Amino acid sequence: MFAAGRFARIHTQEGREIANARRVEADTTHLVQLRYETKLSSITEKMYVLWGARTLNIIRITQDNDRTRDISLYCKEAG
Questions:
Q1: What is the mean pLDDT of each run of 10 residues along the chain (79 residues)?
Q2: Taking Cα atoms as reference points, which of 59, 72, 61 lies closest to residue 28?
Q3: CB of 34 within 8 A of CB of 58?
């Protein structure tokens, strides 16, 4: 999968929930993880990810504060 021309890992979530830091994101269906680059700092929740024929709307964006290596996009499949 490419995001902004970059490779990404996509995790499909069972039960439409992602547990993160003891908080449940009930409306998300996918977690998209990217290597952080300065060019990706402009990603917002108004954007979406194209994955083949699927469209994933970005619900929330998190970044590892200890090491700026990864950026996580919590998404909900459109449709």
A1: 68 60 65 81 87 91 75 90
A2: 59
A3: no
